[in-house]
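Annotated sample (chain length 206).
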Amino acid sequence: MAKGDKFYFENFVAITELSKNAANYLVDCFENYDANNIEQMLKTMHEIEHNADVKKHEMREALAKAFVTPVDREDLDMLSHQLDDVVDLIEEVLQKFYIYDIKTMDAPAVDFAKNIVKSCDILCEIMNEFENFKKSKTIHSLIIELNDVEEECDKLYLSSMRALTKKSADVLETVSWRKIYESLEACADACENVSECVGSVIMKNT
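Output written by the structure step:
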């Protein structure tokens, strides 16, 4: 692989590390939730999201100047956007706590956030393997493993939504938490989308 090609893969690793940072911070916010600190939480999360945006723009600038890329530039651009989406969606979860003025934490949300951390951890492993995907002995199994975590999130989403319907007498609270769980589910789906895109790129180039 050409020396200049390392930039693309290093950029992916960096933005994936930011997604892991965002997911870990989300868990920290959930486990120590204090509605009075929500604005500071949003500020800290937005700093992570901004750094991910910077990496996305660096990728776009590099692709615009590149004559030859290690795989199709459209695939590199798509992966960059999908990785940035993961961070955007994690930030969006926290934004909904602010929008809906959530006062107390719903316990299953903490478990959901921890599963998103698992997904981002696996994405980091995938991206560290991606540069040498033709020789990697683990990248395919990691893609399957991430799919398994996403299925766990699907189950948690269903059980959490059902529990909301059964226990809450406050319609506004129920609607607010439904929106939050939909956002958490979107985070899990976004992680899986990245892994599936990686799988497609590998098939096209082997």
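Annotation: The chain is about 80% helix and 0% strand.
Annotation: Helices lie at 6-31, 38-65, 73-99, 107-130, 139-167, 171-204.
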